[in-house]
Amino acid sequence: MTEKFAVVDTETNWNDEVMSIGVVIADAKTQQKMDSRYYIITPEYRVGGMYSSELRLDGEGVHIAERKQALREIGQWLDTNHVRKLFAYNASFDRNHLPEYAGYQWYDIMRLAAYRQYNRAISDTADCYKTGRLRCGYGVEAVLKMLSKDNRYSETHNAVLDAEDELRIMQLLGHGISTYDIAVVTGKRTSGSIWEQRTALSASIRTAGQS
Q1: How far apart are CA 53 and CA 38, in angstroms?
Q2: Cα-based angle 126, 129, 133 (whole degrees, multiple of 5)
Q3: What strand order describes the sheet that includes 105-108?
Q4: pLDDT, tens digit (0-9, with 9 covering 90-100), for 83-121
Q5: How far apart are CA 155 and CA 142, in angstroms?
Q6: CA–CA distance from 13 to each of 20, 163, 181 (Å)?
Q7: Torsions phi, psi for 153 (to 5 deg)
Q8: C-alpha pair distances (Å), 138 with each of 52, 94, 126, 208
Q9: How far apart are the first and last CA of the chain?
């Protein structure tokens, strides 16, 4: 049986409620995409949010459903594919917004992507802490530009497309799935609200000249 994992991305509305979920299943050995699901959550998406324009309501393969139904269907799909490991960029944000999935093992892609020890694309002159972590400029867009050397890339902030981009970061980093054992995300919340955590991350990225 092929071992699989999933990459998850969520987008939230102005009330900090999940309004869309994108999930991509990949082969654990090759890290190549095998399947994906995209759900827009109703009525939460109607509130509007920073990236509402990227929801793509009429796109191919879009499912519009209430949260309970969406999470049930995604969970059944994950279970059918024997997926127990969920990966995300800044995974504590997504995990805390999806408490129904606390039973899965969560891993933070950013824990490797933002550190010199694991991201060979970080230059010798980059501003890093003593731990090796970049001080700023470690969001998805900045890191994927760094790894791909494609300065034209722009993060869409569409949940399923972002999940695919986050999988691409994993592919470009080139580490086996077992390396991410150092990036396990526990259920313990960090200080500050989730909204504050995402705002702080966005601010650090903007400081580095990234959108």
Answers
A1: 16
A2: 75
A3: 62-65, 33-41, 18-27, 4-12, 85-88, 105-108, 184-185
A4: 999 999 999 999 999 999 999 999 999 999 999 999 999
A5: 9
A6: 9, 18, 31
A7: -60, 140
A8: 23, 17, 11, 9
A9: 41
Structure-derived torsion over alpha carbons of residues 107, 24, 205, 55, reported in degrees to the nearest 10? -140
Closest to 88 in 3D by CA, of 182, 196, 185, 157: 185
Torsion of CA 199, 202, 208, 210, to 10 degrees: -150
What are the CB-based long-range contacts (under 8 Å, 24+) for 170-173? Answer: 170/7, 170/31, 170/87, 170/109, 171/31, 171/32, 172/121, 172/144, 172/147, 172/148, 173/112, 173/113, 173/118, 173/119, 173/147
- Nearest of 97, 14, 10, 9 to residue 48 by alpha carbon: 14
Q: pLDDT by residue (tens digit) across 174-186?
A: 999 999 999 999 8
Q: Give pTM, 2 decimals.
A: 0.87
**In order of start, what are the domains of the chain with their CATH numbers?**
4-207 (3.30.420.10)
Of 163, 171, 161, 155, nearest to 119 (Cα)? 171
Number of C-alpha atoms within 13 angstroms, CB side, residue 202? 11
Q: Where do runs of H (alpha helix) occur along 5-105? A: 67-80, 91-97
